[in-house]
Please model this.
Amino acid sequence: MEHIATTPSASADLRAWTPVQVDVELKKLGFLLDDARLDMDRLHRFDRRTRRTVVRDGVTAAEVRAARHAMNRLRAQAAPLEAEHDRRGGWTRAYLVPGPDGHIHASTTCSTCNRRGRPTMFKWLTEFSGMDEATVVEAAGERACTVCYPNAPVEVLTRPSTIAECREEARKKSSRAAAAQARRDARETERLAKAVTLDGSPLVIRFEDTLWNGVCDTRVERFATRRAAENWATSTLFHQWYAQDPGRGDDMPRPYLCDKLVRALSTVATHVAQVSADASTPRDVLTRWCAKARRDAVKTGWMPWVEALPDPDLTISPEELPSLIPA
Ligand SMILES: [Zn+2]
Model:
C-alpha cells in the first residue's frame, strides 16, 4: 500500500515538476486511495437498527487503525501535489467520460455531468494537463464538451478525435455497428428464404368460400412465410377430403372445394412455385400438396374412403386440381 512519488525523485522540488508529472502522480495516488477506501469499507457494515456504519464482527481495532493510517498516508502524499497545483493558480486539465458518445471536459464539475444525482465516471487524461485549450480541443474533436470549451471551432467539433481512447472507442463502435448490420442482413436473408413472395412481402389472398352450411363468405388469408402458405393449402385440401365423408348423408352440402377456392389455391401455388429453388411449376406444387393432404388424411384413420378416391361425388377432386391450373 505504501506509495512514494518517484517521477522525478521524491526529494525533488515540486516547483520543477511539469503539470503532467504532478497530475500523473495524483492520478496514481487517486487509484490507491480508491483501493484504500474499499479496504476500509470491507471492515465495516451498515447497521439498520441504529442506521449507522459499524465495524464488522471479528474485525480488530488494529485493523481499522491500519486501514485509516493507509488512507491518511495517501492523502498526505497527495496534499503537496495539490498545493503545487493551487500555488500556480491551477492549470488546464481534461477528463474523458468513457463510452462511444462520452465527451471530454475541462472539469469533473461540468454542468452537463453528474445529472439526476448519479455521479459521472471520468477518465483523467493527464497527458493534457497544463496544455492550452486549443490543443486539447484540437485533439478532442467531436468529443469536446461545448460547455467546457465554448470557443471550440465548429469545424473542429465535426472531426473525429485523435485521442487514443476515443479512437479505440470509435473503432469498437463501428465494429459493433458492422456486426449489428451483419446480423440484420442475416435475419433479412433468412426472412427472404422463408418468404412466400419474391420481395419478401406477405401474401394476402381474398376469395369467396362456400361454408359447410352452404353459405358463401369472403375469406382473407395472409401468409408471411412459404411454410404458412403451404400449411394452409394442405390443410384446405385435407378438409376437402373430410367434407366428402360418404357417411354424412346426401342432405349435407358437399362441394366444399368450389372453383373460387381452387383459384385461391392456384394463386398461392403460383407464388410458392416462384420462390421454389427447384424450378417447380404451380402444377408441381399443387400435385405435392394434394399428395400430402391425402397422406395426412390416410394417416388420421378418420377417413378410410380417402384411399378409394377419387370420389365421383367430388365437384372437383384434389387430383384434378393440377389439371385446372395452367402449366
Ligand atoms: Zn463539460
The longest helix spans residues 164-194. Residues 1-91 form one domain. Residues 4-11, 252-256, 311-316 have pLDDT under 50 and may be disordered.
